[in-house]
Amino acid sequence: MIGGYPSLTKPSSPKEAIVRLVLKATVAHVEAKKPAGRWEKLAGESYAKIMADPESGIPSGQPGGDPRLSHADAGEPRPPGVRELES
Question: Kind of pairing, strands 13-23 and 27-33?
Answer without folding.
Answer: antiparallel
